[in-house]
Task: inverse folding
C-alpha cells in the first residue's frame, strides 16, 4: 500500500498531533476522576482540569478529522493538494495557537486574576464549556480553518472531479466552520447566551460532525473492502439527509428548561427521538457491506470502522434517547447520566472514527504492505471494555443522583461525597484501564511500519 499522491502524507502531521493530545486528554481525565474523591489532590483545580480534558478532546478530534480530509480529498479529486506549503503553515499555526490557549488555561488555573478583561473580552478563558478559548484564539482558529477549507476547495477545483463522498465531506466541514460563529458573541442574558451556545455544541456533534462521519464511513468501507461506490454513496445520502432532518430541530432537546418557549418540548422531544434512526442505518450499512466482502485488504481498519458504527449508535443513539424526552430529562438534566452519555457518544462516534481513519490510511502513508495487527486489537479491547465500564459506573451514579437528589431532595454534596463515592473509585480504576488501551494505541501509531510484518518475519526466520 502506498499513497497515490505524495501530499496526502500531510495527514500524518495532524494525526501525530491528535494522538499526543489524546494521551494528554485521558491522563487529565484520570486526574479529574481522582478529584471527585479527593478534591484537593492536584495543583490545578477541578475546573481547570475539566476544561483541559474536554478542550483537548475536541481539538484532537478536529485535528484528526482535518488530517483525514487532507488524505481523502486528493484521493477523490485525483490530484495533489493545491498548496502543500499552505497546508504545513496551517498545521504549525494551529499547533502554535492551541499551545498558547492551553498555557493560558494553566496560567489562569494557577492565578485566576490573570484572566483580565481586555477590550471587552477575557484574555485567557471565555468560560463557556467546550469553547472556552478566548476571542483572540477564536480569530486564529477561524483563519486556520478558512485556510484549510480554501486549500481543500482549490484542490477539488483543480480537476473539478466531484464525488459524492468528498462533496458531503466538504459540506460537513463548511457547516462545521459556520457553526463555530454562533459561539463567538455572548449576551448578558443567560437564556440567549445558552440558546446560541447550543448551536455550536449540539449542531456540531449531532449535525456537521455526523455528516462528516457519514462521508468517512462510505470512504472507509470502500477502501477496506472495495465495496461499490454507487451503493455506498446512495446510502450515505440517505443517512446524512436523516441526520440533518432529525438533528437540526433535535437541538430542541436542550431548550426544555433554560427559559425558552414551551413549544420546544414537542419539537425537541419529537425530532431528537428520531436521531438514532440514521445511526442505526449506518450500522446496517457497515454490516451489509462487510457481509459482501470478498477480499479485505486492511482488517484492523475494517474492524475499527464497524466498531465505530456500532458504538456511534449505542453511545449517541441509545444513551442519547434514554434521556431525550422532556418527561425524563426534567429529572436527569445535568447529572451523571448526561456525563455517561457524553463519554460513550464521543468515544463511539468520534474517537473510534478518527482511530479508524488512522488505521485505514496510515499503512499507505507509511508505505507498508503488511503489518502486525495484534496491538491494534489489543488497544481496542482495553479501551472499549474500560469505556463501557466507566459508562455503566457513572450511569449507576447518575441513577443514584437522580433518585436521592431530585426525588428525595438530598443535598448535592451529600450525595456526591457519601452515596456515590464507590462509583467514583470504580470510575478512576476503569480510567486507568482506558489509559493502558490508549498507550498501546499511541505506541502502535508510532511503530506502525517501522518493524517487519509477521509474514516477512517468519520467512526471514525460515531462511
Ligand atoms: C455523536 C453524537 C453525540 C455526542 C458526541 C453527544 C454528546 C453530548 C454531550 C457531551 C452532552 C453534555 C453537554 C453538556 O455539557 O451539557 C450531551 C447532552 C445531551 N445529549 Fe448528546 N451527544 C450526541 C448525540 C445525541 C443524540 C443522538 C441524542 C438523542 C437521541 C442526544 C441527547 C442528549 C441530551 C438530551 C442531552 C442533554 C442532557 C441534559 O439535559 O443534561 N445526544 N450530549
Ligand atoms: C476517549 C475517552 C473520553 C472521552 C471521549 C471523554 C469525554 C468527556 C466529556 C464529553 C466530558 C464532559 C461531560 C459532561 O459534561 O457531561 C468529560 C468529563 C469528564 N471525564 Fe471524560 N472522556 C474520556 C475519558 C475519560 C477518562 C479515561 C476518565 C477517567 C476516568 C474521564 C473522566 C472524566 C471526568 C471525571 C469528567 C468530569 C465529569 C463531570 O463533570 O461530572 N474521562 N469527559
Ligand atoms: Fe444535543
Result:
Amino acid at each position: 500500500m502506498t499513497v497515490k499522491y505524495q501530499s496526502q502524507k500531510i495527514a500524518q502531521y495532524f494525526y501525530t498531533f491528535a494522538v499526543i493530545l489524546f494521551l494528554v486528554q485521558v491522563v487529565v481525565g484520570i486526574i479529574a476522576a481522582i478529584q471527585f474523591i479527593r478534591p484537593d489532590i492536584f495543583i490545578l483545580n477541578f475546573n481547570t482540569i475539566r476544561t483541559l480534558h474536554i478542550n483537548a478532546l475536541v481539538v484532537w478530534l478536529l485535528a484528526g478529522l482535518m488530517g483525514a480530509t487532507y488524505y481523502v480529498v486528493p484521493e477523490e479529486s485525483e490530484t495533489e493538494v493545491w498548496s502543500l506549503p499552505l497546508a504545513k503553515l496551517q498545521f504549525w499555526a494551529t499547533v502554535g495557537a492551541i499551545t498558547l490557549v492551553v498555557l493560558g488555561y494553566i496560567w489562569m488555573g494557577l492565578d485566576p486574576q490573570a484572566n483580565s478583561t481586555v477590550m471587552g473580552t477575557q484574555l485567557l478563558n471565555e468560560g463557556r464549556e467546550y469553547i472556552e478559548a478566548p476571542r483572540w484564539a477564536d480569530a486564529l482558529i477561524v483563519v486556520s480553518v478558512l485556510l484549510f477549507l480554501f486549500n481543500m476547495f482549490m484542490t477539488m477545483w483543480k480537476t473539478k472531479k466531484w464525488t459524492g463522498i468528498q462533496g458531503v465531506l466538504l459540506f460537513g466541514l463548511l457547516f462545521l466552520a459556520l457553526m463555530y460563529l454562533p459561539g463567538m458573541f455572548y449576551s448578558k442574558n443567560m437564556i440567549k447566551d445558552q440558546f446560541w451556545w447550543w448551536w455550536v455544541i449540539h449542531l456540531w456533534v449531532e449535525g456537521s460532525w455526523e455528516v462528516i462521519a457519514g462521508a468517512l464511513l462510505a470512504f472507509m468501507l470502500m477502501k477496506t473492502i472495495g465495496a461499490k461506490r454507487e451503493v455506498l454513496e446512495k446510502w450515505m445520502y440517505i443517512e446524512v439527509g436523516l441526520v440533518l432532518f432529525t438533528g437540526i430541530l433535535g437541538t430542541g432537546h436542550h431548550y426544555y428548561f433554560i427559559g425558552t418557549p414551551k413549544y420546544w418540548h414537542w419539537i425537541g422531544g419529537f425530532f431528537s427521538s428520531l436521531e438514532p434512526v440514521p445511526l442505526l442505518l449506518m450500522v446496517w450499512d457497515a454490516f451489509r457491506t462487510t457481509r459482501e466482502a470478498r477480499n479485505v485488504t486492511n482488517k484492523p481498519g475494517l474492524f475499527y470502522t464497524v466498531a465505530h458504527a456500532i458504538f456511534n449508535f449505542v453511545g449517541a443513539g441509545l444513551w442519547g434517547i434514554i434521556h431525550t424526552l422532556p418527561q425524563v430529562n426534567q429529572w436527569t438534566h445535568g447529572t451523571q447520566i448526561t456525563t455517561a452519555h457524553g463519554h460513550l457518544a464521543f468515544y463511539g462516534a468520534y474517537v473510534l472514527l478518527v482511530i479508524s481513519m488512522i488505521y485505514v490510511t496510515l499503512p499507505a502513508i507509511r508505505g507498508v504492505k503488511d503489518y502486525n495487527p495484534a496491538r491494534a486489537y489489543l488497544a481496542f479491547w482495553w479501551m472499549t471494555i474500560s469505556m463501557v465500564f466507566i459508562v455503566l459506573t457513572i450511569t449507576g451514579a447518575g441513577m443514584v443522583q437522580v433518585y436521592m437528589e431530585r426525588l428525595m431532595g438530598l443535598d448535592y454534596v451529600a450525595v456526591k461525597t457519601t452515596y456515590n463515592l464507590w462509583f467514583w473509585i470504580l470510575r478512576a480504576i476503569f480510567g486507568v484501564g482506558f489509559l493502558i488501551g490508549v498507550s498501546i494505541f499511541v505506541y502502535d501509531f508510532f511503530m506502525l511500519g517501522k518493524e517487519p510484518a509477521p509474514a516477512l518475519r517468519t520467512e526471514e526466520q525460515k531462511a
Notes: The domain at 162-351 is CATH 1.20.210.10 (Cytochrome C Oxidase; Chain A). The two ends are 25 Å apart (CA to CA).
